[in-house]
Amino acid sequence: MRHAYRRRAVLRGVDLRLRPGALCGVVGENGAGKSTLLKILSGELRPTRGTVHHTGAFGYCPQHVVLNDALTVRQHLEFFRKAYRLPDLRYAEEIMDVLDFAGYVDERVGVLSGGTRQKLNVTLALMHDPRVLLLDEPYQGFDWDTYQRFWDLAARLRDAGRSVLVVSHLAYDTERLDELWRLDDGVLRRDEAASA
Ligand SMILES: Nc1ncnc2c1ncn2[C@@H]1O[C@H](COP(=O)(O)OP(=O)(O)OP(=O)(O)O)[C@@H](O)[C@H]1O
């Protein structure tokens, strides 16, 4: 796959297959094209060349939180429940418990802290239990406990057969990953040394 913004080539050689039951990381420096890659995988952006195939539902957590400040957490959950056609919010509530922010359910999103907004952002991407998870810097703003619990949740989803892709500019916690990919100069390469 390739992508250029006007004449600026950002992705020059990207070929990625996400296996079921794999927790994968993509790292790269600021501006390497990681968000561009996730936008293409999620369909937000059409690549200059190449195609993306999905075999089932996916969840996309964009780098920038897309929330409505005037609505409460519960109203966001209800809105997405309808969009995903879910019978109830039981699974969403489980995720909220894991991320420890169920107490904010009746707060307006505009008054939430950055980390709590991000917890909601992640919950909205996961709550329909998709087969593939595309997560762009999902733990930004998380405190240490939440960060650990996020990784436990990611591992649980992997163990349940989901494909989990986490994008980050930091190659932290690479021992938690099944595969590590590095995006450098527009080319995506498997980082064998760090891959488990
Ligand atoms: N809409 C756009 N129009 C033009 N250039 C863009 C656009 N979006 C991104 N770029 C450029 O493409 C390059 C890759 O950006 P991208 O956001 O994908 O990088 P990233 O690896 O996610 O960076 P970061 O770690 O800082 O989030 C950057 O040089 C950026 O300036």
Automatic annotation (TrEMBL):
<feature type="domain" description="ABC transporter">
    <location>
        <begin position="1"/>
        <end position="196"/>
    </location>
</feature>
<dbReference type="InterPro" id="IPR003593">
    <property type="entry name" value="AAA+_ATPase"/>
</dbReference>
<keyword id="KW-0067">ATP-binding</keyword>
<protein>
    <submittedName>
        <fullName>ABC transporter</fullName>
    </submittedName>
</protein>
<keyword id="KW-0547">Nucleotide-binding</keyword>
<dbReference type="InterPro" id="IPR027417">
    <property type="entry name" value="P-loop_NTPase"/>
</dbReference>
<dbReference type="InterPro" id="IPR003439">
    <property type="entry name" value="ABC_transporter-like_ATP-bd"/>
</dbReference>
<dbReference type="Pfam" id="PF00005">
    <property type="entry name" value="ABC_tran"/>
</dbReference>
